[in-house]
Design a protein that fits this description.
By secondary structure, the chain is α/β, with parallel strands linked by helices. It folds into 2 domains: 40 residues, no CATH class; 126 residues, 2-Layer Sandwich (Endonuclease, Chain A). Helix content is 35%, strand content 26%. The chain has 6 helices and 7 strands. It has a 7-stranded mixed beta sheet with strand order 1-7-6-5-2-3-4, sandwiched between helices. A hairpin with a 2-residue loop joins strand 5 and strand 6.
């Protein structure tokens, strides 16, 4: 079944062992949905295992800003690995996490405490001068990344990203 619910939109003229020799056909609804998403410059996603996509973005990013109230040992090790590979990282988290995360500051991760209780989760990535921002329910925890069904919206519009960064009091790293 296809994105738009139509099970007739992909027509295969040959077996799956020959993907580039196949004839593809798309429904009008699928094309219109795709163009709408590209035009609005953001896409919502709801799924389990969304952390793999976030990890991939972390790996190709030169700079990142992460705002999350919850972080576990998995998240700490992930940040350590990213920092060791030369990433510039800013972490905004609850003040109550500071003792737990103090060693991250010692390895060069900029840790900014938030005195306010917050529940927002934001991931900003700068990749070869392009910007991507994720806003949603994903904490920097193993369960959130790989076990729980989570929702995010992925933004690539510069004005939308700027507004999100201003909301959290950041203009960049």
């Amino acid at each position: 079944m296809c994105f738009d619910g139509c099970d007739d939109c992909l027509i295969f003229s040959s077996g799956c062992s020959e993907p580039f020799a196949q004839v593809y056909s798309l429904s009008k609804r699928l094309v219109l949905d795709f163009l709408r998403i590209i035009h609005q410059k953001n896409i919502p996603v709801l799924k389990r295992g969304i952390g793999k996509m976030i990890e991939n973005l972390m790996e190709i990013s030169q700079r990142m800003i992460i705002k999350t109230p919850f972080i576990d040992e998995f998240g700490i090790k992930l940040l350590e690995r990213m920092k060791k590979s030369g990433k510039e990282i800013m972490l905004i988290t609850r003040e109550s996490n500071l003792d737990y995360l103090r060693h991250l500051g010692k390895i060069g991760i900029k840790i900014t405490p938030s005195k306010e209780k917050f529940h927002a989760k934001i991931y900003y990535f700068n990749i070869n001068e392009e910007e991507i921002c994720i806003q949603g329910s994903v904490n920097l925890t193993k369960n959130s990344f790989y076990e729980n069904e989570e929702n995010i919206t992925l933004f690539w519009d510069k004005s939308q990203i700027l507004n999100i960064l201003k909301t959290i009091g950041v203009d960049g790293i």
